[in-house]
Amino acid sequence: MSAEPSPMRAFYNLLVNNAVAGVVNFTVWFAITFWVFLETRSVFATGMIAGVFLVLTAAFAVWFGSLVDHYPKTRVMLGSSLASLACYALSLGLLLITPEPVFRDVALPQLWVLIGLVMLGVIAGNVRTIALPTLVTLLVAEDRRDKANGLVGMATGIGFLTTSMISGLLVAWAGMTGAIGFAIGLTVLVIAHLLTVRMPAGTQRAASGTEADTGPDASPDRRIDLAGTLKVVGAVPGLFALILFAAFNNLLAGVFMALMDAYGLSLMSVQAWGFLWAGVSVSFIVSGLIIAKVGLGPKPLRTLLIVNLIMWSVASVFTLQTSIPLLAIGCACWMFLGPWAEAAEQTTLQKVVPYERQGRVFGFAQSVEQAASPLTAFLIGPLTQFIVIPFMTDGWGAETLGGWFGTGADRGMALVFTVAGLCGVVLTILAFNSRAYRRLSAAYAAAPDKEDAPG
Questions:
Q1: Taking Cα atoms as reference points, which of 306, 336, 294, 251 lies closest to residue 437?
Q2: Alpha carbons 252 and 417: distance in angstroms, whole number
Q3: Most buried of 210, 298, 300, 379 (most Cβ within 10 A)?
Q4: Could you give the 3-state DSSP secondary structure of residue 296?
Q5: Whole-angstrom Cα distance, residue 78 to residue 198?
Q6: What stretches of 71-125 show up as alpha helix (H) in DSSP?
């Protein structure tokens, strides 16, 4: 009889599997953004890509969270990869049968059908981002979960490190066809590896199932049950406020999603931009390693707000001048601080939310948090293209600010970054002084330690 697999061994295997799947999906996302901008030179189009991603994320997150709670985790992850594989295969077929010049016209439907297929494949991977923190609760002891969340951040950083470099090189040397072919090959490997992962006994039942419905013929309740999820969130003082704070942060972050690639590609080649992101992504990995070593401290919410204050302060100044080194430093700071914010939010939710509801609460949080960003992403592309860029090219802004800030299209995008950063600083200061912050901090401190999840 084979030995029972240890929970931590299963966690490490699933962490690696998720990391590789993340590399695949983010490579495709980066690649389609790079490729569309290079083909069309349209900031509007890249803004729409970010908007499509965020709309689909918000639309599917609650349902994805329900799937995570109602089915065994590895089965849900397997379904995620199979869905991505199908979308990427259809995308490759469309690329092969369509003449390349067709994709250079943003008015033609073929480009948007391709973007839709690619982004559906990427979005299918979001099931994994909801499942992974629930697996931390399931497989890792409570006093080590903040460090495990740091490892999750490190894995994400490795994904960014390889993704940005791979995307730039693939688009430069093999176009979008090469990027999709790469994604299909790695997705097949991810599926094959996941099929070999052994989970400890009792951990493969549905989180929302009861003892009575965990047998081979069980039919657990598969409803999304949004009302029940809202009740759980509302029962924790200040938890709604935390989710709304993250939503407002994402409202501002939508600016960076819509414009960052266009800004970077206006200063350097796609290969150089990919290598720059690969370099700054090292800070993401270092950050995850530090969290895995020292944890977040006894007050993760305080850590979350301090990190946000620093992040938005950096965002308000890193594009003040046209400077690739300044851009690289700003991106590195952003990448270093990101895992701290993400780990702090996950650690808080893992402690204050019952395990059997965590998939739905993580999904609800993702849905609400991402719902804010599409508004920014959809608006900021046209706003920047048709108002801010002319304002900083030959308008009043160029005449008034151009002497020290600079003029042109890249300076228009830079001005939008600075304004978004200042808004983020104000928002974080307000959150630090809010009653909701104090109530949720008290709820976290009062929550009992749960050494193991059910099963």
A1: 306
A2: 9
A3: 300
A4: coil
A5: 14
A6: 73-97, 109-124
- Please give the helix or strand (H or E) that residue 394 lies within, else none: none
pTM of the model: 0.68
Contacts of 395 (CB under 8 A, 6+ apart): none
Check: CB of residue 417 under 8 Å from CB of residue 262. Answer: no
Task: Take residue 307 and report the two structure tokens written for it.
Answer: 């990190």
Rounded CA separation 239/259 (Å):
31
Q: Distance between CA 327 and CA 285 in Å, rounded?
A: 19
The answer to whether residue 363 scores a pLDDT higher than 70 is yes
User: 421 is written with which tokens?
Assistant: 């950063």
Strands (E), 182-269: none
What is d(CA 148, CA 179) in angstroms, rounded to the nearest whole number? Answer: 31
What does the pLDDT read at residue 214? 37
335 pLDDT above the threshold of 60: yes
Could you tell me which of 345, 429, 405 has the C-alpha nearest to residue 152?
345
Side chain identity at residue 21, one-letter code = A
Q: How far is CA 147 from CA 143, 196, 202, in A?
A: 9, 26, 24
Q: What share of the chain is helix, strand, coil (3-state, %, to 5)?
A: 80, 0, 20
Q: How many CB atoms lie within 10 A of CB 40?
A: 16
- Lowest model confidence (mean pLDDT) among 84-93, 255-264, 317-326, 402-411: 255-264
CA distances from 346 to 26, 133, 312, 343 (A): 21, 7, 20, 5
For residue 298, count CB atoms less than 10 angstroms from its CB and return exposed for 0-12, middle for 13-18, buried for 19 or more. Answer: exposed
Cβ atoms of residues 340 and 291 within 8 Å: yes
The set of residues, in sequence order, having a beta carbon less than 8 Å from that of 100 and lying 6+ positions away, is 175
Is the pLDDT at 432 greater than 60, yes or no? yes
Q: Where are the alpha helices (DSSP H) in 316-408?
A: 324-352, 358-383, 389-393, 396-405
Q: Which amino acid is at 12?
A: Y
How many angstroms separate the CA atoms of 102 and 355, rounded?
Answer: 49
